[in-house]
Amino acid sequence: MKKVGNQAQKEKYLPKLAGEYAGSFALTEPTAGSDAFSLKTVAKKDGDDYIINGTKMFISNSDVAGVFLVFANAKPEAGYKGITTFIVDRDTPGFTVGKKENKLGIRASGTCMLHFDNVRVPKSNILGEFGHGYKYAAAYLNEGRIGIGAQMVGLAQGCFDATIPYLLERKQFGNDIYSFQSMQHQIATIATEIEAARLLTYNAARLKEAGVEFTKEAAMAKYYASEVAQRATIKCIDWMGGVGFTKDFPQEKFYRDCKIGAIYEGTTNMQLSTIAKYIRKEYSS
User: Fold this and answer.
1) pLDDT reading at 179 higher than 80
2) What is the pTM of this model?
3) pLDDT band at residue 285 under the 50/70/90 scheme
4) Residues ≥6 apart with Cβ < 8 Å to 45
5) Are residues 115 and 150 in the same domain?
6) Cβ-contact 155, 105 below 8 angstroms
7) Phi, psi for residue 14 in degrees, rounded to 5
8) What percent of the chain clears pLDDT 90, i.e. is strictly above it?
9) Does one domain contain both 34 and 67?
């Protein structure tokens, strides 16, 4: 909204988004996950308004959001180029938020379905340009992948930091278990992978801040950091032994929370496809 919203939209919503309530990005649908731009939610023009019908799925923060950026196709005959972004207030008639999903991890972030039943919004609630919703969604997701990379690095590092002191104290066969060479090699490998994921994430952020192309690097950061987070948390549970499998220690929560990194804002396979696409482009030019 800050980037492409008009002055009236910014004056109305940005102050509220600064503290009164959260916002939510509504793209994913039951039949449009990785193939996001095949979405079925439509917005039909009716005078100076648009009437939105459809369903969104797995929408983050939707349990507490006061305003939603809803991607709907306002010109289906144009394909994905008809996708337009609409600002929808939570209290708009016909708009309902479903129950919170009972998720494996990131449970502090509410995830719900959204239902649009003849939801009428004024033309003035179009965010940015008509038919540019797919561009805004792609740009948002590209930037967000850097954030997911950072999230996964933080989870991996946090789990690692919570585990190493235990390994230095826990004794078996007369020595702390950190002292065994096989343990040291595993620890060194995970520490190196975490650092590599961190540097990939920093590099993507550096490119974005410099205003140059960063799509491939953001995909690399998200893909690798999410894989490393899974490996790191699994290893930490292994190193902790039986206590790592209990809820008395934080390793199980790190493990549950990191799995989403390989799923949301583009699955691992989607990241690999993006990386390969840009490599082809680089070597074909």
Assistant:
1) yes
2) 0.93
3) confident
4) 74
5) no
6) no
7) -60, -40
8) 99
9) yes
